[in-house]
Amino acid sequence: MKKAYTVLVIDDEKKLNDLLSRIIGYEGYNVFQAYTGKEGLKTLGQEEVNVVISDVKLPDINGVDLVKQIKEKSPYTEVISLTAYGTIPDSVTAMKNGAFDYITKGDDNRKIIPLLNKAAEKSDLQKRVFDLEKEIRGKYSFDTIIGNSPQIKDTVLLAKKVAETDTTVLLLGDTGTGKEVFAQAIHYASLRRTHRFVALNCSGFNSELLESELFGYKTGAFTGAAKDKRGLLEEASGGTLFLDEIGEMNLDLQAKLLRVLETQTFIKLGDTQTTKVDVRIIAATNRNLEAEAQTGKFRLDLYYRLSVFSITLPALSNRKGDIELLAKHYLKEFGMKMNKPQLDMDKDFIEALKHHSWKGNIRELRNIIERVVILADGNILNASLLPYEFQVEAPEGDSMNMQAMEKLHIRKVLNFTHGNKTETARLLGIGLSTLYRKMEEYGIG
Asked: Do 59 and 152 sit in the same domain of this protein?
């Protein structure tokens, strides 16, 4: 079944407006009518319109200016201008303002429906692209960065400020702190957001492959180069290239990257011509590049060029107040994926998370929550589902207290048996009823 598109006809000549509206309605379109530009704009504010057919001569608004206002109000709405012979130049100007096309009153009747069909299809495609871009911006916006701690709030504030510029950014911090998440947020908050965000992990390639990935090559540049290849610098032109683990790049490639940063040009492997790009670089590392630059392991000039604006992402161990928030976020994510939407965490579970060292940072937390969701049989997650090292780190009061040691041991065995009470009781050498009594006594869920 053909999709029902919506058309708005704006013309102060009522007979022509009514005639056009009937013709268009017979073709299966939903039709709205307006007799002034002001009425038309009001309708646009209330209804989702695919195509506007508007006279270029209206009593209250010049039709040429109206096109501009329509496109500002609804960028994916297409406009077809209605013109008399004497106003064709106005319609040409309207097209420069963003109109799809124009038709001449009384002489182009056979063109109206085919032209309308094309405009409606273009509008529908643009609307889908617009919605997709909006969804992507939402998915990668700063709003997705979770945390209320001063450390993460200050970091987000810095990133938001630099996002508005075209400045090169260096993201510093331990592995797993979310450097790529920040890079994406910076890109989608920038003026480059309508262009590509391309990510490359520099540690994933040897130097030769990394060079060809970055800069591309010409046919015959080396054995196996059967055709030209565009590098990621070209693919990201107009947008952002994120270079993760930049500290792994060798010195020769660093020199070529420095040239890109300074001139936005480079020479491909096997080429003699310069390739020009327009790309923003965001780099990231968990290494101390300043120290390595001082010892010659990293180019000092490149370090200075990259670190025009550096942001250090806080380790999770330095923002423990955010752990519960992050855990709940991932619990919801994996609970929905694994059809366990009612999951929650008990107090001991949360305390165990807070007292863990989190050397793997947010990435480690995400993996741990995914694991416990898989293991969970009931709706409440308890500390027995966590790996043994979490329970060792959890506060138990006096380490020599017999009850504390017994509680810890029961948790350890429950973890080993993945929560199987019968098997746990067997391994502990106690009756099942005794195990349940002790679990209730110690508050083990």
From this structure: no
Q: Check whether residue 189 and residue 304 sit in a common domain.
A: yes
| Side chain identity, residue 158 | L
Task: Return the CATH number at 81.
Answer: 3.40.50.2300
Report phi then psi at 260, rounded to 5. -60, -45
Whole-prediction pTM value? 0.69
- For residues 428 and 421, the answer to whether their CB atoms sit within 8 Å is no
Kindly write down the DSSP assignment for every residue of 172-235, as one continuous string.
E--TTS-HHHHHHHHHHTSTTTTS-EEEEEGGGS-HHHHHHHHHEE-TTSSTT--S-EE-HHHH
Let me know if residue 242 belongs to a domain: yes
Domain carrying residue 392: 317-442
Residues 120 and 42 in one domain: yes
Do 150 and 290 belong to one domain? yes
pLDDT string in tens for the chain (445-residue length) = 356 899 999 999 999 899 999 999 999 999 999 999 999 999 999 999 999 999 888 999 887 788 889 988 888 899 998 887 655 666 667 677 778 888 887 666 678 889 999 999 999 998 888 788 777 777 889 999 999 999 999 999 999 999 999 999 999 999 999 999 999 999 999 999 989 999 999 999 998 899 999 999 888 878 777 788 899 999 999 999 999 999 999 999 999 999 999 999 999 988 889 999 999 999 999 999 999 999 999 999 999 999 999 999 999 999 999 999 999 999 999 999 999 999 999 998 999 999 899 999 999 999 999 999 998 988 999 888 888 777 655 554 444 466 777 887 887 788 778 788 998 988 888 888 888 888 888 877 6
Asked if residue 1 is part of any domain, the answer here is no
Domain boundary residue, one of 314, 347, 365: 314
Q: Reduced to 3 DSSP states, what percent helix, strand and coil does the chain have, rounded to the nearest 5?
A: 55, 15, 30
- The structural domain count of the chain equals 3
